[in-house]
Amino acid sequence: MRAVCWNGKKDVRVETVPDPKILNPGDAIIKVSSAAICGSDLHLYHGYIPSMKPGDILGHEFMGEVVEVGKAVRKLKPGDRVVVPFCISCGNCYYCEHQLWSLCDNTNPNAWVNAKLNGFSGAGLFGYSHLYGGYAGGQAEYVRVPFADVGPLKVPLHFTDEQVLFLSDIFPTGYMAAENCNLKPGQIVAIWGCGPVGQFAIRSALLLGAEKVIAIDNVPERIELAEQAGAITISSDDDVHEFLKERTGGRGPDACIDAVGMEAHGSTYDLIKQTARLETDRPYVLRQAMRICRKGGMLSVPGVYGGFIDKVPFGAAFAKGLTIRMGQTHVHKYMQPLLERIERKEIDPSFVISHRVPLADAAEAYKMFADKADGCIKVVLKPQDTTPPDKTAKTGARRRLRREQWAVPRSKRLRPVGA
Ligand SMILES: NC(=O)c1ccc[n+]([C@@H]2O[C@H](COP(=O)([O-])OP(=O)(O)OC[C@H]3O[C@@H](n4cnc5c(N)ncnc54)[C@H](O)[C@@H]3O)[C@@H](O)[C@H]2O)c1
Ligand SMILES: [Zn+2]
Ligand SMILES: [Zn+2]
Fold this sequence. Notes:
about 25% helix, about 20% strand, binds zinc ion, 6-stranded parallel β-sheet, about 425 residues, binds nicotinamide-adenine-dinucleotide
């Protein structure tokens, strides 16, 4: 089969690899109909997540058709259409029983290595390094899904792939980030990052009753998409601290969401230290959020951090009595309730898609997404699309990338409740 393989920093290639096989009785094999590239994949692409090996198959946002199941699988059968959560969970351990699915104790075969870094290991993840289990990802024609009775959500045929694909990750991630703010009516939320996760956090905060959302980024089309959801926006190049203070009556936002994580722009200090390997992450947004959040406020961190950070004003967080909540999303917990929100037409997650491309063009698509080129906000890869390249197009890189209008016409866009 063809699959997107990591080969080093900024080097992903579509390669021919062996088809996946059933290894355990609880496995299923999925024929992937749609997969997406996540901001978390960029941390791998840029070489910031350790323990990747050349040839590793990427991808943790995917869906498709069940084509084979192991002997012990009861809930799925060939022909079922499923969306698969990015974290792999056993369904039986203490953490799974407490709905803390991404912290599952039983699905990371390399847990002992991870625990050396983190004290204890979380769940195995698809396509996300050997520290997280070394599982092959879903940016491929086929993928093996372990614990198939636990994770995959069957989706009815009346939904399109694009409406439900993001239940695998970014919709639950944005939603959990907003839920972690414990919002009360009348509250103001500031959200750093208008990437896909930020976009879902903005819409989720409004769905959950936030009075006002202030979104921060410096990419024009992403800022515009945030405004279309009803957010007030400011460029991250401006004085964010003063703006937030002014817009909150001098008090600071009730809740702050860091939907940026380890690759924040804006701080030369962090860039130098990260490049010199003197810190693993660039916590620029975390610092800003800790300082501006109101006293007693909530700080929610869906953005990924990988290791050790520097000059974080922990004293400010302590002095103001902030509550900090974070982590990998407990995707399983949110899939069904969010599918119901899609069914009730409260939100159509496909709003975030800017590009749809055949799997064969994944290398160019990664570069475009990483560079935020061509208005790219979210890329959907189509593994079963074998359209031949357009030989008439000029540049190799752009040959087959078929750009879609990123913005859904205003008249067709669903406004989140409360916007
Ligand atoms: N917790 C989870 O389970 C989970 C799941 C999915 C993604 N993530 C993480 O969420 C983060 C965002 O993901 P994404 O897919 O939206 O990525 P993305 O890279 O597309 O978007 C990040 C956005 O942050 C903006 N940004 C950078 N520095 C900024 C600053 N100083 N101020 C304001 N905005 C800034 C960028 O311009 C970009 O638009 C990543 O760290 C990703 O790894 C976490
Ligand atoms: Zn992701
Ligand atoms: Zn478990």
